[in-house]
């Protein structure tokens, strides 16, 4: 017992080891238990091994994990080249430990020797990996030697996406667009702001550019969001350029009663309120609705908020217009959430598509005849977008598609589909540099209740 304590004390004295151990543990939670990375790295409610780290170490763990997930296919392929035979199927801790080290060696500004030595020490400290310590040393040293020659070639040929996602993208968008989408997934997304007014002024103050769609885009933040100019006075909120489009599809809603039925954290609610609508913002999640209320308060905007499952919501009067920004697989947001490809499955996509169809059918009942409903989500999968709406329209003759016209909203024309819906992918919105380009994958269709 005494020896074990001494050993533990010794381990905690090794600089950087706790970060690698937490990285390996959290990678296991993402990949083996499908736990979202944002939850694991939440400052208050995150994984205890993460919360035990200081602020700098937390940032390093997040950087390692984001890199390990963003380049998971490339890392796996380069590791496989160094292994004589595949790792045993039950050697998951060893695999995660190697991925954590390889992410540092291949993509991060960590000296190779530090990444290798810490991985070997880590392997020796864990009974599950102890007997592989020699393999860890050999594989990682060989990887460090080979990276200059092999990494550029591997980036050309490997895919950083699981087969199911690659296959869905290829089938939907074809090989060229898929290659562009997957290339965009490898880049960190810029930060977009929706501004209440005067985008040029805020682009200057935030050191960004104004996009053709009117959002302000900043390549890399120089300070935490709450420290940026305009935060305290509520001049803007963070919202991807694509996410800012669905709420703008209603045209003039000044004075109309509009329901935002999956509203939290409220980016689109804020747009609807700013456009002059009397907004009811509904969400099933108490915590997320509380965030929406905080966000609206900072922006000096107000809306009626309702915490309810949409399927149980029965308002006394129908609404003039409805936004249904439905929960989805979020495959359009991989640039910001590189864990998504590795925690979602085709079964999740199918389940979410079925839920969306139910939510849409219920939402329609809450709409006035003649009213508009915008259905949107941030999935790249047509089963949650184009196909779902097509089926819905076939089954509901009272609902018709209200096609979006090219000149309705500035900058939106390239994203209008032949059917008149909106489709964006991370391969869209080419700006001066790749780092300033791209936008989240979104689908939005504007429907009208004819009678
Ligand atoms: C894509 S997010 C909405 C983002 C939001 N529209 C925005 O722009 O900030 C989907 C939301 O739907 C909510 N949700 C999921 N199932 C729901 C249901 N059955 N009823 C109401 N809200 C639901 C989730 O809590 C989540 O906040």
From TrEMBL:
A single GO molecular-function term is: RNA binding
Q: Name one GO biological process term.
A: RNA methylation
Q: Does the keyword RNA-binding apply?
A: yes
UniProt xrefs under Pfam families: Methyltr_RsmB-F, NusB
Q: Which ranges of the sequence are coiled-coil?
A: 282-309
Q: What is the lineage of its organism?
A: Bacteria, Pseudomonadati, Pseudomonadota, Alphaproteobacteria, Hyphomicrobiales
- Positions binding S-adenosyl-L-methionine in this chain are 262-268, 283, 309, 325
Keywords linked to the UniProt accession = Coiled coil, Methyltransferase, RNA-binding, S-adenosyl-L-methionine, Transferase
Q: Which family does it belong to?
A: Belongs to the class I-like SAM-binding methyltransferase superfamily. RsmB/NOP family.
SAM-dependent MTase RsmB/NOP-type domain span: 153-450
What's the name of the protein? MFS transporter
């Amino acid at each position: 017992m005494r020896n074990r304590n001494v050993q533990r004390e010794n381990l905690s004295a090794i600089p950087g080891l706790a970060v690698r151990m937490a990285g390996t543990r959290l990678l296991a939670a993402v990949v083996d238990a499908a736990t979202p990375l944002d939850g694991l790295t939440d400052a208050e409610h995150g994984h205890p091994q993460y919360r035990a780290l200081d602020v700098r170490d937390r940032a390093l763990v997040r950087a390692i994990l984001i890199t390990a997930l963003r380049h998971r296919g490339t890392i796996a392929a380069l590791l496989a080249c160094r292994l004589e035979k595949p790792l045993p199927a039950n050697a998951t801790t060893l695999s995660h430990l190697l991925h954590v080290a390889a992410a540092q060696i291949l993509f991060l500004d960590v000296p190779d020797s530090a990444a290798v030595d810490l991985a070997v020490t880590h392997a020796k400290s864990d009974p599950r990996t102890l007997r592989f310590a020699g393999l860890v040393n050999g594989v990682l040293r060989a990887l460090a030697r080979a990276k200059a020659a092999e990494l550029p070639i591997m980036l050309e040929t490997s895919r950083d996406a699981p087969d199911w996602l690659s296959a869905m993208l290829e089938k939907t968008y074809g090989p060229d667009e898929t290659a562009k989408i997957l290339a965009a997934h490898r880049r960190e997304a810029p930060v977009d702001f929706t501004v209440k007014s005067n985008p040029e002024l805020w682009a200057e103050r935030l050191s960004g550019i104004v996009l053709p769609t009117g959002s302000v885009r900043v390549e890399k933040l120089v300070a935490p969001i709450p420290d940026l100019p305009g935060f305290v006075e509520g001049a803007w909120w963070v919202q991807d350029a694509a996410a800012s489009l669905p709420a703008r599809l209603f045209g003039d809603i000044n004075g109309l009663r509009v329901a935002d039925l999956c509203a939290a954290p409220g980016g689109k609610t804020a747009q609807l309120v700013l456009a002059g609508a009397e907004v009811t913002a509904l969400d099933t999640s108490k915590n997320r609705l509380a965030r929406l209320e905080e966000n609206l308060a900072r922006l000096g905007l107000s809306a009626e908020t309702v915490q309810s499952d949409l399927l149980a919501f029965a308002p006394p009067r129908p609404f003039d217009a409805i936004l249904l920004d439905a929960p989805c697989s979020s495959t359009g947001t991989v640039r910001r959430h590189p864990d998504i490809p590795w925690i979602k499955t085709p079964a999740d996509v199918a389940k979410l598509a079925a839920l969306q169809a139910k939510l849409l059918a219920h939402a329609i009942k809450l709409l006035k005849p003649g009213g508009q409903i915008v259905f949107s989500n941030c999935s790249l999968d047509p089963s949650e977008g184009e196909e779902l709406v097509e089926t819905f329209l076939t089954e509901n003759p009272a609902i018709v598609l209200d096609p979006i016209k090219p000149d309705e909203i500035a900058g939106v024309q390239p994203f209008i589909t032949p059917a008149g819906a909106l489709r964006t992918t991370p391969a869209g919105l080419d700006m001066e540099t790749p780092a300033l380009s791209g936008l989240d994958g979104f689908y939005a269709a504007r429907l009208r209740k004819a009678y």
